[in-house]
Each structure stands twice: as C-alpha cells, then as structure tokens.
Amino acid sequence: MNSAIAFSHWGRLGALTLSALLFVGSQAQAQTDPLPSWNDGPTKQGIVEFVKATTTQGTPTFVPSAERIATFDQDGTLWVSHPMYSQVMYCLDQVPALVEKKPHLKAVEPFKTVLSGNREAIAKLPMKELEEILAMTLSGMSVDEFNTQVKAWFAKAKDPRWHRPFTELSYQPMQEVLAYLRANGYKTYIVTGGGQDFVRVYSEAVYGIPPEQVVGTAGVTNYEYQKDGEPFLIKEPKLLLNDNNAGKPEGIHLMVGRRPVAAFGNSTGDRQMLEYIHSGKGARLAMLVLHDDAKREYAYGPALGLPDTKVGTFTQALLAEAQTHGWMVISMKNDWKRIFTFDE
Amino acid sequence: MNSAIAFSHWGRLGALTLSALLFVGSQAQAQTDPLPSWNDGPTKQGIVEFVKATTTQGTPTFVPSAERIATFDQDGTLWVSHPMYSQVMYCLDQVPALVEKKPHLKAVEPFKTVLSGNREAIAKLPMKELEEILAMTLSGMSVDEFNTQVKAWFAKAKDPRWHRPFTELSYQPMQEVLAYLRANGYKTYIVTGGGQDFVRVYSEAVYGIPPEQVVGTAGVTNYEYQKDGEPFLIKEPKLLLNDNNAGKPEGIHLMVGRRPVAAFGNSTGDRQMLEYIHSGKGARLAMLVLHDDAKREYAYGPALGLPDTKVGTFTQALLAEAQTHGWMVISMKNDWKRIFTFDE
Questions:
Q1: Sheet holding A231-241: strands in order across?
Q2: Beta-carbon separation of B255 and A250 below 8 A
C-alpha cells in the first residue's frame, strides 16, 4: 500500500467518523428540550415556533442571521426586581461614603433620611429625591472606579428574602430563552431602564451578555486627565439617555441601529419597545412577563386585580394592550416549571 | 474484531486524520501573508507582532477574546476623504429636495449659495453654515426613509477623481488589517466623526462591520406615530453625541463599554481615541495613517511640511505626539504596496 492510498483511506475513514459524530450530535440535539424549565403550552410553543419560523431557510418568515436581534428588559423580566431594584439598594448603600466625602449633605434631605436607616421613611421618599440620590451616587468617579465599587457591592450584598447574592436571582426559564435564541444565531441584548454602566458590570457573568450588548439609562462621561497625565473617563451627574418608555426604541436605534425581531418586557417602561418591535414586518415575538406567582416569587401588577392607579409599572391597560396586539403573556405561575436554579 | 474495537480503531484514525488536517491547515496559514498589500518593514511587523502578542496564551500580553476590541476611524483612515467627505457631498446634494419642501430657504444663506452650484463659493462656506446644512439634510425624516435615501445616493454618486462609487474607495491594506484582526478573534468597530446613521448604511457591505459596531456622531431620534398608528423613529436636528476628539473615547464608553486594545486614526479628531487606547495596560496598538502619497492618493497634512495653521486636521503636533507616545505612523507611500483593489 503506497502512501497516497493510505492517505486517501485515512481521509475517508476520518470523514465517515466525523459525519457519524455530527449525525449523533444533531439527533441528540433534536431530542433535547431547549426550554426544560417551561411547562408545555401555548407560551412555550410560541417561542419555539417563532425560532423555527425565523431560522428555516426558504420560508417568507426567515430572518438572515445578521438581523436576528432579540432585546430583553432586565428588572422583572430576567431577574427579581421586587420589592426594590438592586440598583436602588446599591445607591442607598453608597450614601454613607458619599456623605463622608461631602459632609454638608449629612443634614440635607434626602440624605438625612437615608442615613437614619428608617426603612419606612426611605421607602416613602419622593421619586425626585430618589433620583437625586441616584445621580449623586452613580457619578463623580471614573468608570473604572465605578466598576470596582459595583463589583465589590455585588460580592457582598444579599437580597432580603432568599438571602442570596442578587446575581443568583435570575429566572432560569429566561436564561433558557437567552441560550436557545443564541444557539439559533440570535444576538441577545439587555435593554434596561437601569444604569447601563451598572448592568454592564455583571451582564456577562450572569447572562452571558457582553457589555457592548447592554443598552441602558446612560449619563454623560467626560474625558479628563489625572495629575500624572493618564487619561480617564469621569461619570457626570447629567443624563444622556433615559432608557425607559419611548427611550427604549430610541436607545435601541442609537446602540444597535436595526429594529430587533423579538422583545421581552414586564412593565409599562417596556411598552414602546414591544410595540416598535412587534410592528415590524415579518415574524415577530413580543412577550410580557406577568408576576402572578406569590408563592415562588411575587404577585403584583394586574395579577392582583387592582385598579391601575394603585399598581405602578405593570398595568391592566398594558395587559389589555398585549391582548389586542397579540403580544404573548408569560404567566410565571403557569408557564414556568421552576423559577430559580436553586428551586427544587 | 468486535464493534467496540472497530469503533475505537475508527476513532483513532479519525483523530489522527483530523490533527493531520489541522497541522496542514496551520502550516498553510503560516505561509499565507495576512497583509499582502503591505510592504515588509517595521509598520507591517508592528501589526503582526501585536496580534501575536495579544493572542498567544500564557504570555503576559495575552488578551482574552471578549476584550479584543479594535476601533477604526473611517474618513482618511479606512477610505478616501479628500478633498471633501462623501457625507458632505451627500448633504449638499440633498439641498434641492430640501428647498422644494421648504421654499422659503431658497433665498436664504447658505442654501442660496449651494443652489447656485458655484463650487468655489460652496467650498468657502464657513463651518457654522455647513453644519446648518448638515443638520437640516440629516433630519426631518424617519430612520427608514433616511436609510433608503442614503442607499440610493451611494448607488449613483461617483467621486470626482476616480469616477467610481465611493464604496470602492476603501484602502485595501486597511481592509486586510480588519480581516486579519477578525480572523484573530477581534471585534472591529468604526468610530467615526461622521454620522452614525449615515455610515451604518454601508458599513456592512464595505467593511463587513455590522451597524451595531459603528459608533459615530449621532442625533436625537423621537419615537412617534404615523396617522395609521404605526410607530416610527424620526431624526431630529439635535446633537446627542459629537464623536470627535474627546467625544471618541466618550462614545466608545457609551457604545462599547470597554477600553479597546487597538485603534487606528489619521487626524486630530482621533487624538484622544489613540491616547485613551494606547494608555491602557498591556499590549496596545495605536496607528496613524499619514497621507503622503500625492500620486496614488493625496499628500496633505504634515507630509507637506506646512505650518499647523494651514494644515487642517492632521497636524505636525499630532505627528510629534505619535513619535513621543510610540504610536506607529503608516506611510501610505512607503508602507502600502497598493492602495485600492483597482490598483494594478
């Protein structure tokens, strides 16, 4: 047997082995449920059918891979945000350090109330005063210092109910949707009303979403120099992009530049994003997470049947709009087999 | 021979064949020059050594693939921008249609001068009046209408010297750098002083860079509704991000969220981007394209030895700074074997 024949023989066997492996692989994949934490039903089916419709070549609903963009609100959509956003807790926790640097704030509202530790009084602070705390504690340092501070806080902070790091409180069924979409060529974005710089600190570790795929409420930064001439970016207390309501489609245009084909939200702040994405041509997926599971997570918003004036950010009106437009509603109670990785 | 042995035998042969193929593959790659349009010399070597340094595991200069971000200015760095930016030509070409919609502008400067067709007078318009033309012709329509208009213009417009579509005037050596970096796990971004929405129209076709990887000067958009209730985004004549000078590192932080490790520019508008990126820790690459090839492209800026007051955007001071900081200077004349794909 000469070496040319030997090579061709090897090559053939190699090719056979490889295709056998690929065949076994695709069989195994077809049999694996990509959404094991979802109960069977129209919601789960809606997601699977959307993915099939947009990834099957030669169909009118096919979406080229470059255009497969899916956007996810974060708080209340990908992880727990009730009763208080973790970012607000972070900002309140920064107040003592802020007052140490700026002692005159000690006797000034709303800082005085925060320092008192009186939880009831803190919970009652008007939105304007809360925004002042946010602006002051999320600015005045370099972007690198801010990253370090946020990382350090998440390493220690625990949520008051489960006594676990906030980063363990993402919804497992939504993690599966993220992974399922990515496995089908989708680029997944977080589009959050929360701070863009804040969410970027942990988005990669928690969701596998890199910083450049996080669109959020963003402040101005200024390019400045340290005394030794090193340049740095300082965070200013000035709003550049309010990534809520109409700010979501506007922020998506600024940061992504194309209209996504799938969007997930849970509150009135997500209304325009869902509307914008769902009104595009072709197959579209718009989904609203309904918090109706008082036992395993929380029941709030329309699940309680309260009038909209008492409800906050997820209203009966939004739920009605979802039904009118054909956005799908995810019932945490009925659609999710488990909510957290630590659920039994 | 039982089937277990047969399988293991196949498996071994398969593995051997695969590694033989990979070995042949890497040999072949090592022999292929990734930068064939570059002359050998320290500039080309600098690029190749940077890529090796940042992609060789176990070295102190290794950069994890998620952090491999490279940013490129566009005009004058990736394609011809002399004697006039194509975007300015686009805006001037839109003036007749603008005046048709708003007839009162016909007798008003600077629109009157543009309509006169007097090239000398147009070239002398002060920057403030030029900015007024840009703001008026780049706003007042939906983002979808704008995309369509820009696409239609590029399909017809030709540059005055080579009489070719502008999209054929990218520099082949820079296209090779883009491809070489991407083949080594880099995400390539355009960071342009030009309009973000404008450049996004052709960035994918011309450079293989998707819209979401274009950072540029951006205006405000507003989320509005058509009469039939369809939502759309309208472009407003209001600046959100001036992506020049300090605006480049600020824009990179806003849109990318990490400090890149490589940057390419050609003018004073790129100074802070090069400085910011080069001052980061670890292996860094900062390069300036010097327009010193009067025959094949243009010679302008410091190549002419003129005082900075007469030079415009690429100054002797910038060149001196490059030498001080160790940013590499690309001489179009000496470093590039060919400039355009249509060069012989």
A1: A231-241, A214-225, A187-195, A69-72, A262-265, A285-290, A328-331
A2: no
